[in-house]
């Protein structure tokens, strides 16, 4: 994620709603992928500093303060491009849910920023009701039995189905997410990681399922027509394959080709977003400046990125080695606790190519 600059030349960040230097209100303009200062011109209408056009705040900005995106003033929709993707929001009669929803929205907008940068199709379920992208933020249903014992009546499973991404609201609660990470014996579990992983399932349907890439996909990832239910049962009964480190990017990726793709997709998004951040801060490792893989290029043979996959991966290896060491110096877990095998690398390259030539 890159940083932005306020009209006062102070650095501002993607989630900010106010500049701490000049107190200007801020709003993100998705059409330009820019965070900009706002000047109010009339009730709920603002002129944006980057182009002097008129915008209104997303309803979830002014009403709930969980968003900072803007909507063109003549757009009949009160919600921004991000919030229009919501199918179900949390129950706001519970005051604690507002902050959890804010965290969900922050992670979702970060995902969308990268998807827009990659020029990937983001089509709402309101446009394509059966397969369009949508998000539901749900919570476990708890019952109070006998007046004192709380039991889970309905456990919400984070997942994807025909474009609809469902996330358990508990994933926005740090303590609950860490507890689940320990139970699942995972080394990495984050909110943005969930969004990136589940978006991978959506884009498998969009980019692979009915395309000429399906056979190359099966050669690398395996045959997705294998029973998903049986694969899931076997994974949770027996654990990952013994040699998963040599073939898959994570233990969970070994469960089924669909999960292999989604995990690989998520890791690719981890890479490009983090490398853009490093480039934005002008980080160099051993004299090699980290390149921005999300820099637009109009070259025919380089459809969306200004650097090759080899450059991207080399920068990633240098960068992760460094910030893992820095994390250890601070007593934290590795920021990127994975080793990428040759096979996993080939799968990452496949994702790179699938995105590069996406229509």
Brief write-up:
With 359 residues, this protein is α+β, with helices and mostly antiparallel strands.
In DSSP terms, counting alpha (H) and pi (I) runs of 4 or more, how many helices?
Answer: 10
Q: Residue-averaged pLDDT, rounded?
A: 92
The secondary-structure element order is EEEEEEHEEHEEEEEHHHHHHEEHH
Helix content percent band: 25-40%
Give a count of the beta strands, DSSP E runs of length 2 or more. 15
Low-confidence segments, given as residue ranges, are 297-301
Whole-number count of domains: 3
Distance between the termini: 24 Å
User: Taking Cα atoms only, what radius of gyration do you get, to the nearest Å?
Assistant: 21 Å
Shape: globular
Determine the strand fraction and express it as a percent band: 15-25%
Widest β-sheet, arrangement of strands: 3-4-5-6-7
Coarse structural class: alpha+beta
Query: How would a crystallographer describe the biggest sheet?
Result: 5 strands, antiparallel
- What's the oligomerization state? single chain
List the defining traits of the structure above:
3 domains, five-stranded antiparallel β-sheet, 359 residues, alpha+beta
């Amino acid at each position: 994620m890159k940083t932005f600059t306020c009209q006062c030349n102070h650095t501002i960040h993607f989630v900010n709603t106010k500049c701490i230097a000049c107190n200007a209100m801020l709003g993100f303009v998705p059409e330009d992928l820019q965070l900009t200062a706002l000047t109010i011109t009339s009730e709920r209408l603002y002129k944006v500093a980057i182009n002097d056009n008129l915008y209104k705040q997303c309803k979830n900005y002014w009403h709930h303060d969980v968003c900072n995106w803007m909507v063109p003033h003549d757009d009949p929709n009160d919600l921004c491009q991000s919030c229009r993707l919501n199918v179900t929001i949390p129950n706001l009669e519970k005051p604690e849910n507002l902050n959890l929803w804010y965290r969900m929205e922050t992670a979702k907008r970060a995902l969308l920023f990268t998807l827009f940068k990659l020029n990937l199709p983001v089509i709402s379920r309101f446009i394509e009701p059966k397969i369009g992208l949508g998000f539901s933020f749900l919570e476990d249903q708890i019952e109070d039995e006998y007046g004192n014992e709380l039991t889970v009546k309905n456990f919400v499973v984070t997942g994807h189905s025909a474009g609809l991404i469902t996330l358990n609201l508990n994933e926005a609660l740090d303590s609950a997410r860490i507890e689940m990470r320990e139970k699942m014996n995972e080394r990495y579990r984050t909110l943005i990681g969930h969004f990136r992983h589940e978006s991978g399932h959506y884009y498998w349907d969009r980019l692979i399922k009915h395309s000429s890439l399906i056979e190359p996909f099966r050669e690398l990832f395996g045959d997705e027509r294998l029973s998903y239910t049986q694969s899931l049962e076997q994974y949770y009964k027996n654990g990952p394959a013994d040699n998963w480190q040599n073939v898959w990017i994570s233990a969970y990726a070994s469960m089924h080709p669909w999960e292999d793709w989604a995990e690989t997709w998520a890791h690719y998004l981890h890479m490009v977003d983090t490398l853009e951040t490093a480039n934005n801060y002008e980080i160099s490792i051993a004299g090699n400046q980290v390149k921005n893989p999300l820099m637009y290029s109009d070259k025919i043979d380089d459809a969306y990125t200004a650097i090759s996959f080899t450059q991207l991966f080399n920068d990633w290896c240098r960068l992760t080695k460094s910030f893992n060491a820095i994390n250890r110096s601070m007593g934290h877990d590795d920021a990127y606790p994975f080793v990428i095998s040759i096979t996993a690398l080939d799968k990452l390259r496949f994702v790179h190519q699938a995105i590069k030539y996406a229509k």
